[in-house]
């Protein structure tokens, strides 16, 4: 197969059965989203946000795309925008990883920083202010845009079902972290429609507010919410696990040491939560979880120390 554009490489990522001791001999399978061309799950959404906006007539060949983002969304959007020749401005709270910002700039995006103390809410406000000043601009706004969960419901979720069906396996549990909540909501809702008896678990770091807070900063990057994602309104959530930074980073180290796998801290948190969900499932159940990106994106933050 010869591809014509790097965005054609998005999706159809590998599913890996992890080798580790688990409660109740549960098997844990991880969808390796770092194998997308931009290095994260957000390539799927970046491309689909622009497909959707284009279909709805919200953008044309000269629209500037503006988005508040922790980084991976910026890379995904920058890839999708580059293909279409559209300029991109990404509004990034200043605590996020340098590697992601270097990559966003390399793809041609302009970065605007907002203060760490204002969090993602500050970045959202700034993006909207920039858009109101700039004619022919569009803010996809992943935190509210139904095309965000839809991106995963139409690609990643069917891939999971197909992978399990081809191997005559049933999915008993689904675990994913929440930042915007799009990954969890889009996939959980789709799987619930297709898999009887599925148990779903959402994952947050300590410092996120799903289990009642209090809100504070955390080292685990890419997940954690400052407000309940609107996408959660119509999806059944069986468990919400709050994972400490130490737990997440221990899993990151363990996966490199024992499975030869470089995972980011949100993947580490998803794995720690999968081990918690395993305690509640019958023996020999199957859990599928999402590994959104790679540790290589966080080496400057000493992810292995
Ligand atoms: N992990 C990483 C590394 C991410 O960048 C993101 C997106 N911020 C997530 C998990 C969470 O994904 P979602 O926004 O779909 O909840």
Structure description:
- This protein is an alpha/beta fold.
- The protein folds into two domains: 6-40 and 147-301, Rossmann fold (3-Layer(aba) Sandwich); 42-138, Rossmann fold (3-Layer(aba) Sandwich), CATH 3.40.50.
- The chain is built from nine helices and ten strands.
- Helix 1 crosses helix 5 and helix 5 packs across helix 7 (182-194).
- It is globular.
- Residues 40, 42, 70, 72, 177-184, 222-223, 264, 266, 292-293 line the site of 4'-deoxy-4'-aminopyridoxal-5'-phosphate (PMP).
What attributes characterize this protein structure?
Rossmann fold; 9 helices; 6-stranded mixed β-sheet; single chain; binds 4'-deoxy-4'-aminopyridoxal-5'-phosphate; 305 residues; alpha/beta; 16% strand; 4-stranded parallel β-sheet
Percent helix range: 25-40%
Which class of secondary structure composition applies to the elements?
Answer: alpha/beta
Outline the low-pLDDT stretches: none
Number of structural units classed as domains: 2
Strand count, sense and barrel status of the largest sheet are:
6 strands, mixed
What is the N-to-C succession of helices and strands?
EEHEHEHEHEHHEHEEHHE
Estimate the mean pLDDT confidence: 96
What gap, in angstroms, lies between the N and C termini? 40 Å
CATH architecture of the largest domain: 3-Layer(aba) Sandwich
